[in-house]
Each structure stands twice: as C-alpha cells, then as structure tokens.
Task: inverse folding
C-alpha cells in the first residue's frame, strides 16, 4: 500500500535537473525532472561508489553520475551497459503541477 | 511461441564466454541451460596460479557470480556432470538423472591433466593442477607437509612449483626435457629462467624420467623414484606433464573426434546442431591450451549460434607469459626457428636480458624475451600483422623506442602503439578499444578499464601496459582526438570542429537550435555534448546566449568542487596568491562556523576549505563575500590561478613587479570560462620561482620587460611552455596574453587544454594571429575584455538568483 506524500511543485525542480529529498532514515532520494517534464525518483546513491546521482547531468531518461560518469536509467535505476548495478527506484507522480512520492 | 533451447556442457572459460558473446549480440534469443561438473560458478582458471601463490583469493577470480546467471535468465546446474548426449532425442543426461532437451548444444568440456601411467599415480596426495579443488588440495598439503614434487617443467608446472614454494614447501621440479619450458623457450632463455627460479629456492631435476610413486605408512604418497633408481621424498606430487582434451563424452555420442572434437571454421561439429569450443576442440588439427584462441572461437561460435552466420575462426598465433611474480618471460610464434629462418639475438647474461627474434622472408615469425619483456606486445603485433620489417631491421632487437621516436618518459610505449595493436592477448583487446572506452566512459583506474574492456582481466600480464595507456589517454582525453572529424559523442556524427563552425555560421544561440539544426540523434544530448555546446554558445555569443546551468557539470553548477563523499570544497580567490590578515581571519571564522573538516593550502597558492555540505554553500559564500572575497573558480573550465613569485617588490634578484603583474592579469581574466582550465604564472626573473614554464601562459620578467610563454601544462603529461614573444610593458603583457587566450577560447575544442590546442594548430599559426597581425591581436584582446566586461562573482549570483533552490534539500517527515 503506498502512501503518497506531496513533495514540491513541479516547477521547484529545474528541467533536466533534480532536487534532493532527505528522509529520516534510509538515505536521500533524488527526484529528477527531464525535458518532457517526466519525473523520476531514485535512491541518491550511485551503484558504483555511492556518488550523489542528484548532482548529475540529466539527459533523455538517464542521469550521468557526477563522480565517475556512470549512466543510470531513470525509469528503473539500472546502470546502462556495460556498467552493472542498480539503485532502488521510488514511485512518483505529478498531479496538477504537484509532485508526489510514494513512501 | 517458445524460444529455442541452448544447452551448454561445461561451465568454464570458453563455454561461458560464448554465452556472454551471444547475449551481447542477441539477448533473449535462447532459453539457456548450463551444466558444470564443478560446484562453482564460472571462474578465471588462469588465476588459480596467483591464488596458489597467495596473491589472490578464490572470491577474486570468480568471473560470473550466481547473480549473473539469474539476471540473464540462465538455468545453471553446478556440480552436475553430463554422462550422456542423446543426439536422436536431442537431450543431455546428467549423472544424477537430470535431463535437458536442446535445439542447439554447445560442448565446452575443456581438458583434463595428463596423469603419467606409472605405478602409484592414484595414491592420495597425487594430483593434477586444473581446478579449485586441486588448488585447495595443494594449499592444504602445503600447510601439513614438507616435500613437494612437480612433474613437468612447463608453464603450469613452474607456476605450481612457485606457488608451493611460496607456501613454504620444499619443491623439486622433475622435467624430462633438456631445459625448462622447451615448448616456449630456446635453450639459452630456458637456462636463464632456471637460474632465476633456483634463486627463489626451487630445485630442478632435468632429463629425468619418473618410474614410480611410492606409498607411505599413512597410505599417502611418500616418495618418488626415478629411472636409474634415485628416490626422493614426496608428500605431494603434482602432475603437470600436459593436458588431454576432454572429448570422451562427445565421442561416445558418435560425434567425430580426432584428438579433440573436430570442428569446422564456424565451430560446428559434424552434427550441425552441435557446436564446440575451448580446449576440448580440435580445429584444423590443433587443440589450443591458452585462453586467447578460445575466446576468439567463442566469438565465432556465438555469432553462428545467433544465426548471423558471420565470421570464421581460422586459427591463432599464440603468445605466452609466465605468471611468476618477479620473472619476466614472453614468447610468441615460432621461437625456435629452423633452416629457412634467420635469428637476431641479444644476449646479456650479466644484465639478465635475453631476446631472440626469428625472421623469415623479412617478416617476424617468432620471438623469445627474457628479463625485459616490455616490447613483447609490439613484437607480437608485428608478427600477427606480418609486417615487412626490413626497414627497421637494424634496430628491431632494441625495441620500439629505438625504432620510433622516444616519447615522454614512462608513457612512450603506450603512446606510440598503433590503435590496432593488441594489448590484452587473453581477451583480444586492442589499444583502440581501450582508449575509446577510457574516453567514452571517463575511466580512471585499471579496475574500471578491466571491467569495461576485459583487458588485463584474465592473466593480468598486460596490466602495466594498460596503466600506461590510461595515463597517456587521460592526458589525451583533453584533446578530443587529433582528427577534425571524430564525432563529438554518440549523440551526433558531427565533430567539435563542425559544431563550432556551424554555431558561428548559422548564428545558433541555444542548445535546442543546435540539436535541431544539426539533427542530433538524442532529444537533449548527453553529459559529453551538452557542456561542450553550452560553452561554445556562451563563448561565441557572450552577451546573447544564455548560460544553461543544467548543461554544466555539477562543479560549475554548484560553484564548488564535488568530493568523493558528495560534500564540496570551497576555494576563495587570492589574487596572485596574495592575502591579508583580515581575509585569513574570515577564512578561519568560516571554517569554524561551518565545521570544515580540512583546511589545506593548494598547489595554486591559496586556501581550500574541504568537506562543506551542499546546503551550507550559500551561507559560507555569503560570509566570505562579506569579507571581500570571491570565488576562486577552482572547479571550473575557467581561469584558475595566476601564480606569482615575490618579484622585484621584495626579491633581491627581481627585475619586474611580478606580484602586481600577476594580480592585474588575474583581475583581467576573472570569471573567464574556456575550453578547459587556464593557469598563468608570473615570475620576477628567469630563476622562475612561479614555475611559469608549465603554465598555459607563463610570464617571466627580464631587465628589458617580459617574456611570454604559452601552452605549458604541469598535469598528466608535462609540457614545457613555448616562447611566444618578448614585450616591454605590463599593458603589452595583458594584450598579448589576453589575445592568445581569446584565440584559444574561440577555437579550442571543449576539454582541450592550451597545450593540446597548440599541438593541433601549431605555434606558427598562433604567432601569425597574435604577433604578425596587430589588428587581429587587438581585436582578440578587445573581444576578451568585452565578454568579461560585467563579470560577476558566481557565488553572489548563485546565492541571489533562482538556482539557489538546488542547494536546499526537501525534508521528508516520517
Ligand atoms: C586542490 C588542488 C590540489 C591541492 O590540494 O593542491 C587540485 C585538486 C584537483 N585537481 Fe588539480 N588541483 C590543484 C592543482 C593542480 C596543479 C598545480 C597548479 O595549478 O599549479 C596541476 C598541474 C598544473 C596544470 O594544470 O597544468 C593540476 C592538474 C590537474 C589535472 C591535470 C590537467 C591536465 O591538463 O593534465 C586535473 C584533471 C582535469 O583537470 O581534468 C586536475 C583535477 C583536479 C580535481 C579538480 C579533480 C576533480 O575533478 O575533482 C581535484 C579536486 C580535488 C577536490 O576534491 O577538491 N588537476 N592540479 C590544487 C588546486 C589549485 C587551486 O588553487 O586552484
Ligand atoms: C593453473 C592454470 C594456469 C593457467 N594459466 C594460463 C595462462 O596464463 N594463460 C592462458 O592463456 N591459459 C592458461 N591456462 C589455461 C586456461 O585456463 C584454459 O585454456 C581454459 O580454462 C580452457 O577453457 P575451457 O572452457 O576450454 O575449459 P575449462 O575452463 O576447463 O572449462 C571446462 C569446464 O567443463 C567442465 N566439464 C567437463 N566435462 C563436463 C561434463 N561432462 N559435464 C559438465 N561439465 C563438464 C569442467 O569441470 C570445467 O569446469 C591455465 C590453466 C591452469 C589450470
Ligand atoms: S593529484 Fe589532483 S586529482 Fe589526483 S588525487 Fe590529488 S588532487 Fe585529486
Ligand atoms: S560513484 Fe557514480 S560513477 Fe562512480
């Protein structure tokens, strides 16, 4: 059963950018917005060496980790081949310009 | 419709590699089932030697973890040996009765150690050397027993002997041949090798034939007897006298075998539904015992299994290295030579170096190297390319350095290798592939290269070379290729040159316009092209094109340098390296207030506050700004520092006011973005204490004025700056260096340092623009000043404008 939490307005996230959601436990979540205004949420921890994905460059449906340049798929959290690894993803939705996260 | 079924017998190196190749080119084509007799997932058999020697652990040599099988939906049966292949019903049957039907069968059963047919060969304590079980048994024996005898002085035998010795056993190697490794080395090199191994404490009995193994009271082997009657104690006997292709299973099912499973050039057996690869195979009469050829076979087999039908395996020339730490030995091709071959030999017994090259019809056909194997891969490439060597014959034996020009110390070899040259023999990885992976994926460590390219991931003997390539490439990574035509990244076929030119010619001012006009293949580029285009736009149309923060690397977006733990470093500017008590006090206060864990003096004459949390950045900047300090751009592809010496202000040798000159230059260039970072230095006299000789622009004071040097670099590959001109006044220094930097800003490709730009266009070209054409110089200088005219401190801008939000995390209450 998911519990939708209002996070922020869509416009609070820059296009091709992100915001960080801090949780009390379980680590930060990165919320991304791409050029098509799709919103994605991933654990803010690169599967490579835990780089903060929220600080990466967003393109298409991917983010490039700022530390060593791995590409991570925004939809599934999987590293793009040939890199191997994945980070957890979270459900998000946008309704009336507001972003909700399933927690 | 259900998928066709592929069954693999043999969960070893060749078989699993074939499956990997198949998944790469046609994932999801088959339902795959793998049977392996060993109770382990696929591991790197080659590295059993380092495991035995105590240099690696079993965990480290696993190639495919169980998760890999799961992720690729492969059914894996470990510890299940296939007993029967029923080719009529198209199924395989394991000893425990498990059955599996197939549409295609792949046999990769490897080989088994040859056990000498002598009495006692089945005693406890007598083993071959093939798998994890054998290795464990040796490690165990070494802990409990003293005397080990290894039968066979080949590669495997010597690696076993070395490992057992390192584990504390007293080891004797018994060898039938007249010298060690007689299949790889000639007599001279064989003898040199023996001496080095004897120095490590190994004992040898050459030209000695074993007659029997003798049981001790415990039931375990206790001694070994040779022809002639001599007997020595032996609590462990390792038979390393050769391997036998493991084809009994295939033969019993009626597949044609002849000292191996006979396959054609597509790795197909006589039964068209059955393929075979690896050591169990006989291809054109040859059964290979090294991984490089097996991996080539795997590639071909995968292609045919995928139904593409491209590629044939036509046999391999092999090369070997002995994996005994501290011993350098390389051999390739026909190293023995014969009647119709010539030899070039270099023999320096004192220096411990021996090299022999075998030449036939002006081509290298084989070689042996001992003591100095650095040129091994280069010779191997000449050999495989069948390159005519008559023009380099005189110096061939001295290696590549003497043939080509000597490059920069340390990385000459890697830098000079052709892109097509093979670096990793085991996995057939060329330099080109490695370089491409380093550049495309931003690889920085050997481990990353291993993972992405598989180079150096099997026997590891090319690791040193891979590191050299890495070193020379990361330097080169900032030269987006020497060619004007190389695509900028995978999003486009256009080169940096073409993109720059088009932006100017078409007056494109937004990235969207560039993507549309130049028909980008991706909707909004990637982390490679977006920053490049953003820079091209703002440098070409300084007050017209708007900077796009989302196209900048995080450092330039956060105006601080990201650290490995996700915190940031803050470096306030200290003009020309000068500071004041008040500034130092403000820095100290900020460091305390924001709990900065590390305060460090940088190599750029200023102070770095390391470990600041992102959310604290706006506040710490505000404090520093309040004390009159601005960003040092220590994070940017931008002006970094202007290093100065004390100069004529204080120094008894000083001829010019270096500090004042440096401060003027730094203020002039404040907030200047460039294709890459830019560093300057001003020294007061030719003693050059500010190290102006390795800066993008170096200024050296002399009695009559200043000398200006350009294109130096102190980073990955040191480049000495080249003399541009001599000028008289401070104003001229600013004009000439400013004009040069503007030229670089307008023409450099993104991530190209000045030294790389200069290498590309040539010093004469630059002189033509800056020295010979006064009008052009003044115009460049003007454009520089114009684009920097209302430069603002990025910290202030960032704090005051909208992007401030990025620094504030959203808190989620539980
Ligand atoms: C802080 C400092 C080291 C120090 O503690 O002294 C430093 C730190 C870094 N250097 Fe440097 N370099 C520092 C002086 C130098 C110098 C010496 C100098 O400037 O006099 C050099 C050689 C001179 C040169 O550049 O020609 C130098 C050559 C490099 C290079 C290689 C550049 C090249 O073209 O070969 C890199 C890699 C790059 O830029 O891509 C690099 C990259 C880096 C980065 C930014 C790596 C990164 O991207 O994260 C380091 C940031 C560390 C961090 O976590 O904050 N750093 N780096 C120095 C800052 C100087 C400053 O005040 O701004
Ligand atoms: C100690 C050591 C060091 C080596 N060093 C080097 C080196 O430096 N360089 C180099 O190039 N090569 C080296 N080799 C050789 C290299 O490891 C082999 O060439 C390579 O592993 C062969 O691959 P393969 O797949 O043909 O056989 P294997 O890797 O042996 O795989 C065959 C697998 O099939 C299994 N199998 C057999 N029969 C059945 C059956 N009926 N049912 C189910 N499973 C079965 C076996 O248990 C085995 O796991 C070394 C080998 C050893 C042992
Ligand atoms: S040399 Fe520079 S890049 Fe390398 S670790 Fe030191 S600071 Fe980092
Ligand atoms: S931590 Fe993300 S690429 Fe290394």
Result:
């Amino acid at each position: 059963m998911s519990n939708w939490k209002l996070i922020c307005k869509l416009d609070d996230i820059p296009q091709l950018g992100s915001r960080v959601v801090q949780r009390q436990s379980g680590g930060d979540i990165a919320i991304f917005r791409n050029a098509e205004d799709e919103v994605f949420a991933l654990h803010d921890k690169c599967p490579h060496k835990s780089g903060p994905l929220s600080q990466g460059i967003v393109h298409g449906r991917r983010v490039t980790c700022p530390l060593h340049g791995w590409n991570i798929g925004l939809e599934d959290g999987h590293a793009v081949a040939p890199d191997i690894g994945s980070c957890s993803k979270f459900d998000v939705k946008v309704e009336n310009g507001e972003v909700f996260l399933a927690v | 419709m259900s998928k066709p079924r592929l069954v693999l017998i043999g969960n070893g190196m060749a078989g699993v590699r074939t499956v990997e190749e198949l998944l790469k080119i046609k994932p999801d084509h088959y339902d795959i089932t793998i049977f392996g007799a060993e109770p382990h997932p696929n591991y790197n058999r080659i590295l059993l030697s380092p495991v035995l020697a105590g240099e690696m652990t079993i965990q480290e040599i696993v190639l495919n973890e169980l998760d890999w099988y799961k992720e690729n939906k492969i059914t894996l049966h470990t510890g299940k040996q296939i007993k029967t292949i029923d080719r009529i019903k198209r199924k395989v049957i394991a000893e425990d009765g498990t059955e599996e039907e197939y549409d295609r069968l792949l046999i990769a059963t490897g080989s088994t150690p040859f056990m000498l047919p002598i009495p006692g060969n089945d005693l406890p304590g007598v083993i071959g050397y093939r798998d994890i079980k054998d290795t464990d048994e040796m490690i165990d024996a070494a802990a409990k027993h003293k005397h080990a005898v290894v039968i066979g002085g080949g590669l495997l035998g010597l690696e076993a002997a070395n490992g057992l010795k390192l584990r504390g056993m007293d080891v004797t190697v018994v060898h039938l041949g007249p010298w060690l490794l007689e299949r790889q080395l000639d007599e001279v090199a064989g003898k040199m090798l023996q001496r080095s191994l004897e120095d490590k404490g190994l004992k040898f009995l050459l030209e000695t034939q074993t007659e029997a193994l003798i049981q001790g009271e415990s039931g375990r082997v206790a001694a070994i007897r040779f022809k002639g009657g001599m007997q020595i104690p032996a609590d462990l006997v390792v038979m390393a006298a050769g391997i036998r292709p493991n084809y009994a299973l295939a033969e019993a099912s009626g597949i044609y075998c002849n000292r191996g499973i006979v396959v054609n050039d597509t790795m197909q057996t006589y039964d068209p539904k059955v393929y075979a690869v690896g050591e169990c195979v006989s291809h054109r009469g040859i059964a290979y015992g090294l991984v490089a050829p097996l991996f080539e076979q795997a590639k071909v087999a995968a292609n045919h299994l995928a139904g593409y039908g491209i590629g044939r395996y036509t046999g391999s020339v092999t090369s070997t290295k002995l994996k005994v730490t501290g011993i350098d030995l390389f051999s390739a091709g026909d190293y023995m030579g014969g009647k119709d071959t010539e030899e070039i030999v270099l023999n320096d017994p004192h220096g411990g170096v021996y090299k022999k090259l075998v030449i036939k019809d002006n081509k290298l056909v084989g070689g042996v190297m001992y003591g100095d194997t650095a040129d091994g891969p280069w010779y191997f490439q000449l050999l495989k390319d069948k390159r005519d060597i008559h023009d380099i014959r005189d110096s061939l034996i001295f290696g590549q350095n003497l043939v080509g020009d000597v490059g920069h110390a340390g990385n000459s070899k890697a830098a000079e290798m052709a892109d097509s040259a093979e670096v990793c023999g085991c996995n057939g990885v060329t330099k080109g592939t490695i370089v491409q992976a380093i550049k495309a994926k931003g690889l920085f460590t050997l481990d990353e290269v291993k993972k992405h390219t598989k180079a150096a991931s099997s026997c590891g003997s090319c690791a040193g070379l891979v590191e050299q390539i890495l070193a020379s490439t990361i330097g080169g990574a900032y030269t987006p290729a020497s060619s004007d035509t190389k695509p900028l990244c995978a999003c486009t076929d256009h080169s940096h040159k073409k993109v720059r030119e088009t932006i100017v010619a078409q007056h494109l001012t937004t990235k969207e316009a560039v993507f549309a006009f130049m028909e980008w293949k991706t909707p909004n580029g990637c982390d490679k092209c977006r920053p490049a285009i953003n820079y091209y736009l703002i440098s070409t149309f300084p007050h017209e094109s708007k900077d796009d923060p989302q196209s900048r690397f995080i450092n330039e977006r956060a105006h601080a340098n990201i650290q490995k733990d996700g915190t940031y470093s803050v470096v306030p500017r200290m003009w020309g390296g000068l500071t004041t008590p008040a500034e130092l006090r403000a820095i100290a206060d900020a460091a305390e207030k924001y709990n900065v864990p590390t305060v460090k003096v940088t190599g750029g004459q200023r102070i770095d506050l390391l470990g600041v949390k992102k959310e604290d950045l706006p506040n710490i900047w505000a404090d520093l700004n309040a004390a009159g300090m601005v960003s040092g751009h220590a994070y940017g592809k931008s002006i970094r520092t202007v290093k100065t010496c004390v100069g004529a202000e204080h120094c008894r040798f000083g001829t010019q006011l270096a500090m004042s000159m440096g401060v003027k230059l730094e203020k002039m260039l404040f907030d200047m973005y460039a294709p890459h970072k830019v560093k300057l230095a001003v020294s007061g006299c030719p003693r050059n204490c500010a190290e102006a000789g390795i800066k993008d622009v170096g200024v050296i004071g002399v009695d009559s004025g200043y000398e200006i040097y350009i294109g130096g670099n102190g980073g990955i590959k040191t480049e000495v700056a080249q003399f541009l001109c001599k000028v008289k006044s401070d104003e001229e220094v600013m004009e000439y260096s400013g004009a040069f930097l503007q030229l670089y800003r307008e023409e450099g490709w993104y991530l190209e340092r000045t030294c790389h730009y200069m290498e590309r266009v040539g010093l004469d070209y630059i002189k033509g623009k800056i020295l010979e054409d006064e009008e052009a110089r003044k115009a460049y200088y003007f454009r520089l000043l114009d684009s920097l005219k209302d430069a603002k401190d990025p910290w202030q801008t960032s704090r005051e404008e909208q992007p401030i939000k990025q620094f504030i995390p959203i808190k989620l209450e539980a």
User: Anything to note?
Assistant: Chain B is about 35% helix and 20% strand. Residues B 9-15, 35-38, 45-46, 48-49, 81-82, 108-110, 129-130, 156, 159, 246, 249, 278-279, 289-292, 294, 323, 426, 459 surround flavin-adenine dinucleotide (ligand 2) (CB under 6 Å). Residues 403-412, 475-483 of chain B have pLDDT under 50 and may be disordered.
